[in-house]
Amino acid sequence: MPSSPPRITITPPLEALEPGTPVTLTAEVFNASEIVEEFAIDVVGAEGRFRTTVSPGELDLFPGTAGSVEVTVDVRTLYSAAAGSHKIGIRAIPATSPESSRVDEAIIEVLPVAEVLLEAHPQMARVGRAGAFVLVARNRGNNNVNVEFSGTDPEGAVHFDFDPPGLIIPPGEEVYTVAQARGSRPMVGQDAQRSITFRTVTPDPDAPEVLSDVVMLQRAWLSGIFTTIFVLVIAAVLFAITFLVVDAIRK
Q1: What whole-number distance in Å separates Cα of residue 33 and Cα of residue 66?
Q2: What span, in angstroms and rounded, lies between the C-alpha atoms of 249 and 14?
Q3: In the Cβ-directed half-sphere of 199, how many Cα atoms lie within 13 Å?
Q4: Which of 21, 171, 227, 234 sits 20 to 30 Å CA-CA off 52?
Q5: Residue 20's Cα: distance from chain center in Å?
């Protein structure tokens, strides 16, 4: 004869969980059979989303008596369990008749966490009037994030275009956009060094800024040997003009 299924009561039946801070549920198991029974206790429905521990993992109960176990629950990663309600089950399995096992459910309300990372590549680029950077945005939170991109430089000498200008990033995913940076470059002389900061912009006004800094070196129109040649040509022209003027005066 299979034993009567146990009864399980979970306290609290609903628990709010902030990722990274485990919560503890108490499961009371009542032996409704007429024999001394050993129950194995485990968690079902948490695979891939939550990390759980059960203490103790077994209960020896006389007929008509109850015992309690504590179940600790936390997310596996910040983004493994999306923000919102999740059901998990706590199961009691009788040793003498596993087919009489019983499951009771609890609801874990995962609180939203926002964490976006931004990387710009390359970190330094030597360009002419314009340069391109690839921005990689990663969502390490547990909710979809709607981001737009912006760029600034201290001198206000650079203008930016982004393709695409905004994206939705699912939890645990990464996306990228191409940033075109362009500005006037010097005619002659050394490279113009532009310190650029790229940012992600989200609809949440309280979200922290996510930044990535790069350096864009803009080549002069005439630089290096070309500058030297240009100066020599100008000097030769001026010398020729001076010679012609002096020669005209003597005549």
Answers
A1: 11
A2: 104
A3: 10
A4: 171
A5: 15
What is the side-by-side order of every strand in the sheet holding 130-139? 116-121, 130-139, 174-182, 159-163
Q: pLDDT digit string (tens) for 192-201?
A: 999 999 999 8
CA distances (Å), origin 233, targets 58, 190, 228: 93, 19, 9
Amino acid in position 214: V
Residue 188: CB atoms within 10 Å: 12
Write out the chain in H/E/C secondary structure.
CCCCCCEEEEECCEEEECCCCCEEEEEEEECCCCCCEEEEEEEECCCCCEEEEEECCEEEECCCCEEEEEEEEEECCCCCCCCEEEEEEEEEEECCCHHHCEEEEEEEEECCCCCEEEEEECCEEEECCEEEEEEEEEECCCCCEEEEEEEECCCCCCEEEEECCEEEECCCCEEEEEEEEECCCCCECCCEEEEEEEEEECCCCCCCCEEEEEEEEECCCECCHHHHHHHHHHHHHHHHHHHHHHHHHHC
Structure tokens at 156: 């206000």
Global pTM value: 0.72
Separation CA 70–CA 106 (nearest Å): 13
> CA–CA separation, 80 vs 50, rounded Å?
8
Residue type at position 31: N
On the question of pLDDT at 223 being above 80, the answer is no
> Is the CB of residue 217 less than 8 Å from the CB of residue 193?
yes
Locate tokens 């012609």: which residue? 244
Which whole-number Å values give the CA distances from 90 to 12, 24, 219, 245, in the listed order?
13, 12, 66, 103
